[in-house]
Amino acid sequence: MATRLTLQRLRTGLLPSPLRVRAFSALPAVKTAVEGDLGTDKYRLRFKDASGKEISPWHDIPLHSGVPGVFNALFEIPKNTKPKMEVATKEPNNPIAQDVKKGKLRDYHGPIFWNYGMLPQTWEDPNEQHPVTKCSGDNDPLDVVEIGSESLPQGAVEPVKLLGVLAMIDDGELDWKLIAIRTNDALASKLNDIDDVEKHCPGVISGIREWFRWYKTPDGKPLNAFGYDEKALDKKMALEVVAEGHEAWKKLREGKTEKGKLWVE
Questions:
Q1: How far apart are the first and last CA of the chain?
Q2: What are phi and psi of 245, to 5 degrees?
Q3: CA atoms within 13 A on the CB side of 246
Q4: Which of 33, 128, 190, 263 is most buried, most CB within 10 Å of its CB?
């Protein structure tokens, strides 16, 4: 049964193959290596460079792809899956692991309908209050919601085109949700800004907003809120958010901001 389940997860992309080599835009070949069993607190997806040296997907994968408006995104959760996987920001080399809360592995109560991940070399600074939302950052890399047609495997790094952003407020913290599409998706040529998303993909923006508004309520948590009158902001604003997040990350790495328990070596 375990073998059949593992094979099924390999086919769906939930579980990466033990060593998968990918060529990324503006990146050398990077390998992913599975450690431990999926569905346990020992599971880790680690990243290595071409020489076999372990690297941090948060700090060592470049944010910029070399193309204006296009950034490298690391995907932690394939679309239509439930396990809450994330880059472990407090562990050495920041592998992908399943989130644990109150001693239990965390799953969404229903599948997420988009590929979900983060932008490397970004950080939402909890020490800085945003002038509009009056909330501080959530101490994590910037999140990205990729709305393309394909399910991307866990650990995939893909160049994405930014389209817009939602200013989600979760438990008093600002948690930006960048909306993007993979550059080689069939719809990418038609989507260049947030208005194009509503035109060519009606309902997607409201779907993202409502999914993130409600997803914690089965655990007894309150609804999440959104700043800027709940509007999905345009590409220009998304680019500003990324620029600010990248600058915050640089200060963190340079030791100009207190790192707390974060692993930033």
A1: 40
A2: -65, -35
A3: 14
A4: 33
